């Protein structure tokens, strides 16, 4: 063989070995990208954990990617709401100390989880806000609840009434039911077509995640209350709806909570005037146990205003103080004895935000200080433990979405506000004599359309408030010298 041919043969052989060597050295990278895709795009967290563990086992010498994989295992466990997340992050620190970037991220994650758990268990006064998303073309009162792992938000699609989920990581939305294919883009239809469809259209009336984070219970009700209602269950990974219970007696059903074992669902079955009953529905066969009759209007707000305590013998819930009132009080109901007691009673509006993950703290909102603020109180054995404690001021107009298992609290809010101001005006000089001041601090950010009486002693205005998951309008009259303003609910039925 000539030297030239020998050189070509050797070079060709070397190239082949290099190619195979490169391919082998890259297999861990390919598997890592597959694991990330499984986690972030497919949302299969358990499947992703297996792939990341495979990388660590098969390629222990690729320490950079082994450390990254161990970190991502922690992220998956955290989204699943499991305590294994802390162990996974600690393993990054202990096993891969030279991988400084991953170690730094693991320490940050451990710090956040530790503080969140401390705040949830002890009810301390730490309160930090972090914006997760914005401008998603979604009405905030369509949002329902956060998944136990904190990865998804369930909501009702405003353009078709479907049950859908929002992935907080990718900001992608996915419809789980198929109303949309029947009605199309509802906003683009003519007024006549909309009216026709509304008469027969069903929509997802609230939703609540099962403890395993894989199933969602949701109501399926008519927009105008015809045809009864269905309580349904759907699985996140395999969206096929199962009708658990159909009711002809009630036009609306709102799932509110699950028992810790996932065997029962607490739900509100409501008439058109929003009175009705609270009941436990058995997941296995759809059998129903009525717990309480609701004589006053009950407006479900994101599934958080009626919740089971950990002993699953008590319910905490809020109700209007009067039938047409926007002010609410918080009650506890012991359904084994049919006994009701008031937990939080105050002339202000007090409503439930959620229970802490361990069920020993009640978190609620109250406007007793003028603005809508965050409050908490211990709750155990069917009683409050001590007095309510102020936590954070000026929440604004919010829609609570609840806690995830790590102790993070989620809620949505509007960024816009509308308020009424008054000032003294000098007619002759055509200028203000005093600086504008808010006419009222009650329900700040939701007041509009003011009109002053001819004698200047009374001010009438409209207040549009998020109440029970929808906007409700009130005509308010503020009079000079009066102890409190008068309110008249305009759309109460």
Report on this model:
- The chain is α+β, with helices and mostly antiparallel strands.
- It has three domains: 3-122, Serine Threonine Protein Phosphatase 5, Tetratricopeptide repeat, CATH 1.25.40; 140-413, TolB, C-terminal domain (Neuraminidase), CATH 2.120.10; 421-489, no CATH class.
- It has seven helices and 30 strands.
- The strands form nine sheets. The chain has a four-stranded antiparallel sheet, with no helix packed on it. The protein has a four-stranded antiparallel sheet with strand order 5-6-7-8, with helices on one face.
- Helix 2 (45-58) packs antiparallel against helix 3.
SSE blueprint and pairings:
Elements (H helix, E strand, L loop, with lengths): L2 H38 L4 H14 L4 H17 L4 H12 L4 H23 L20 E4 L5 E5 L6 E5 L5 E3 L3 H5 L7 H10 L1 E8 L5 E8 L6 E7 L6 E6 L4 E7 L5 E7 L5 E7 L5 E7 L11 E3 L5 E7 L7 E7 L4 E6 L5 E6 L5 E6 L6 E8 L2 E10 L5 E6 L5 E5 L7 E2 L2 E2 L4 E2 L4 E2 L8 E6 L5 E10 L2 E10 L6 E4 L4
Antiparallel strand pairs: 1-2, 2-3, 3-4, 5-6, 6-7, 7-8, 9-10, 10-11, 11-12, 13-14, 14-15, 15-16, 17-18, 18-19, 19-20, 21-22, 23-26, 24-25, 27-28, 28-29, 29-30
